Amino acid sequence: MSIFPTAALAQQSASARTNDEIIVTAQRREENLIDVPIAVTALQGQFLQDRSITTIDNLSALAPGLLVSSTATQPNNAQLSIRGSVQQNGSITLDPSVGVYLDGVYIGKAQGSIFDINDLERVEVLRGPQGTLYGRNTLAGAISFVTRKPDGQLRASAETSIGNYDAYTVRGLINLPLSDHLFVKLSGMTLKRDGNVRLMPDPASVGGYPLGFLYNNSVVSHPQGGGAQSGQAGTRNRQSLLAQVRFAPSTDLTVDYTYDYSRTRGRADASQLHSVDPDGFLGANCTFGPSVCIPAYLYVQPKYSKTLSSDYTHLDRIEINGHGLAVTWNAGAVTLKSITGYRKMDYDGAVIELDGTPLWLASGGLDTKYKSFSQEFQATGNMGDKLNYVAGLYYFWDKGFTRSPQSFFFGSVNYDTSWGGTTKAYAVYGQADYNITDQIVLTAGLRYTKERKTIVRSSILLPDTIFVDVRKSDGVSKDFSALNPTVVLAYKPNDRLSAYIKFAQGYRSGGFNGEATSNIATTTPFRPETINSFEAGLKMTLWGKRINLNVAAFHNHHRNMQLSVFTATSSLASLLQNAGSANMNGVEVEMSLRPTPALRISGNFAYLHASYSSYRDTNALGAVVDVGDNRTIPHAPQYQAALNVDLRAFEGSGGDNLHLIFDARHTSSYFLYSYAKTPTADFPLVPPSSSAKAQSLTLLDFQLRYEDIALGKAKAWIGAWTRNLTNTHRKVNGIDFGAQFGGLNIANYNEPRTYGVSVGIQW
What we know:
The structure is a single chain. The chain is mainly beta. It is 3% helix and 59% strand. The chain has 4 helices and 47 strands. It has a 22-stranded antiparallel beta barrel.
């Protein structure tokens, strides 16, 4: 099927269905996928549209080695892992492992990275370090969202969908050519859904206190005005808008402006109490203080439940505004491009219920303001028939601040905490392809990055005990710099086969722990993390281009690996530390098969073996010891696989057809944090495997659509769908609060089965 923006989605000829040529911009210029000597997955616009994929959290396992999950208690924050490299903590002062781009504009933080983009042309998932062309914080790879641009064709579409949980979705699009040189496009969507977990009033027989909680013979008011509540968790209410303008005064000059807006209001997903320490103060003894019983063990739910006794569920609110301006000028032998981006995010997590019980054990708030600006200048071109090049200059600035009040144990312990900081980054880069022969190409690239980071931090145990006080006037800052190379040798004997070997270095910036619990820990920076990556790949097309097969094998060596370690010694914090070094070895396979124009089968498989070569930790005597053999690597599943089937089982004389869509995805179990595998004298506390791991998960989705129904000059379609067909429930995230909180462990589960019908029309 065509990927070009001027192609009407309804006009998919038999020849187009047989020959799936894919164009990508993974190397900052348009190339056929088979010619790109890196591991890249391109998900095409029709594939995404048929499956209603508009957000990053729906991409997990659709590219080999890609794992996407939302942060526990924060459904709008994406934890992105590629080949076992992840940033678990979405704090505004920390940087992700995977770079996310929207039409070339870098989205700087994990917080707020789950938002809707309607009318995508394609999504490119670049696996492995992309430090030369994409820069800092593409340690594990990059995900590039490419929207469909306005063009000279008058077209419009509308779609509505209804489903269980009283869900409904409405999407719309209109593309208007205002003149021969000016085109505009508006697209948007709204989604609303009830929650999937019902909150139940706590029966008095198990110790509920509807108006407050007894502590030291006094009633303490709850922050939400009462004890366990009725209601729902997991509600969704989202709206998004994409406004685009293209001005093309000549064939050599194009100006594209994009404005994206996303607004989310919804109750957070339920955090269910998974386990407690049976011998701790939340266990059978249930004693805390001189006169209070905390029967938390009564609320343990080792498996997913549709009902939950909880004191409240918080309203998660986020608003994102993004602006992008791209100017492209073809000046003959060189093409010049400017990409300007400005983004702003307001996030309000209100009061976050953390413990999964109707007891007031742990709650917190999260209020974040963030904005960023980026400017990039690119030059692409060639020098004769032998040399192609890409060169550029890049500037990035951001500023973020978070306030997080926290309350524990019936309001007896309260903190007012906040953190924030700024980044200024500069980079210069270049990459060139030299054709040694008609079949052998040598690629070499280099990027130099320099940046400065600042930090502010406050932590107060109310009413007036100050633990951390680092202010802007203290001028705490740190400079970081890196020089990242890439070298690739590619061999293409014909247009059906290519092979390559590649070395690339990835870089994730150093910085400060905004959630640190002392002045020294706050002002002491952690070091940058680097990856030396070796990769070999093979790409081929067979059977008259009906089969596409891509294979990649890699060895990644991490140095100064940045790992988030959750602590609950006083206020809750997830602190980044340079744990040591690790090796990630794996094999990835992608295949697409089109035996007939009516049938397309695609899928992928990924195998990953992750291990530490060293892990520095401090034992009970304060000595630094290497415990690499006794630590787990988080968010690194050993196996992932996906299968996608599109079958047009019937085609009428008017072009109408019956379209069957089947999707299957599997992810094996993986560790959520860097846990000790077995207890030792220095590290005696090891959580049970059920709390330390996300469970293996297989999801099946199915759709049946009757498409291209002629309605005058328009085409309509109607369909029925179900996601998570088998109604599988598995733990996919959670928080282990540790011994300080009585072994409290909460679990978050994947979405239950949803189903519904959809109808759409396009002109």
